[in-house]
Design brief:
Blueprint (H helix, E strand, L loop, with lengths): L21 H14 L3 H26 L5 H8 L3 H10 L8 H13 L1
């Protein structure tokens, strides 16, 4: 899966505001304390991990509906084909490798 960096030292990052409820703020503060880090770091980590999950979920849904190929599912999920195949196996998805996918994968492997 993707590796999320929680700290980007020396990098000027844009600021984004979001309104959250009291319960979400309390949970955020609780997790930040649990991880012994500040709220901003915890929010960046949660956002990164959450975006990864959303991308994978979207790719799984599209793949299950035969809407995308293995290659496209991996791209949507933001992972390598090997990582996608592992995700698919973990979720019990039927591999939909066809001749075009295999040819594409072989061509990409030659380029490496």
């Amino acid at each position: 899966m993707l590796k999320w960096e929680t700290e980007k030292q020396g990098v000027n990052m844009p600021t984004v505001s979001v309104r959250i409820g009291d319960e979400e703020k309390a949970e955020l503060d609780e997790v930040a304390a649990l991880l012994e880090q500040d709220r901003s770091t915890t929010m960046r980590q949660a956002l990164g991990e959450g975006l990864e999950r959303i991308r994978v979920r979207h790719a799984v849904e599209r793949y299950q509906s035969d809407d995308v190929s293995v290659n496209e599912a991996a791209r949507l999920a933001g992972v390598s084909i090997a990582a996608w195949l592992e995700i698919a196996q973990d979720r019990g998805l039927t591999t939909q490798l066809d001749e075009t996918d295999l040819s594409f994968d072989a061509e990409r492997a030659r380029e490496l």
